[in-house]
Amino acid sequence: MKIKALKISLIILLITGLSILMFYVLNNDSEKEYKIIDCEESYEVENPQPGFLDFSKSNAKKRVAVCLCEKYLQNREEKYKIEILKLYNDVGMMYPSYEKGNKIDSVCNNRKYVFLELSNL
């Protein structure tokens, strides 16, 4: 009788443990993706301590912008240009020298400086 009760208790405990594990795995949103056209980057969502900054989403956007620039420089498609300029206005480093002449060419030729990644503080 005790053995049967012990087996039932172990089965219930095992089912409960597996349920909790599945709930955690399915609801773990710590990794996100940022995609524009055919450039995609993953980044970790962190909850920084108070007073600290998390640049992971911004850095993912910058890596996507660099990818878009590389594709734009290969084929000069308008769809890349539009998205690059949106990201430039959102997360790009604004420098007057990048604004002269053909703005998109200046931004893409200097993409590593314009879309410089920042470290989390």
What does this entry look like structurally?
A hairpin with a 2-residue loop joins β1 and β2. The longest helix has 26 residues, at 2-27. The protein has 121 residues and is mainly alpha-helical. The chain has helices spanning 2-27, 56-75, 78-91, 96-99, 103-109, 111-114; strands spanning 31-36, 39-44. The chain is built from six helices and two strands.
Features of the shown structure:
121 residues, mainly alpha, two-stranded antiparallel sheet, 2 strands
Strand order of the largest sheet: 1-2
Distance between the termini: 60 Å
Secondary structure category:
mainly alpha
Helix share bin: 55-70%
Which value, in Å, is the CA radius of gyration? Answer: 24 Å
Per-chain topology:
Blueprint: H1 2-27, E1 31-36, E2 39-44, H2 56-75, H3 78-91, H4 96-99, H5 103-109, H6 111-114
Antiparallel strand pairs: 1-2
Helix pairs in contact: 2-3, 2-5
Summarize the entry for a quick read.
The protein has 121 residues and is mainly alpha-helical.
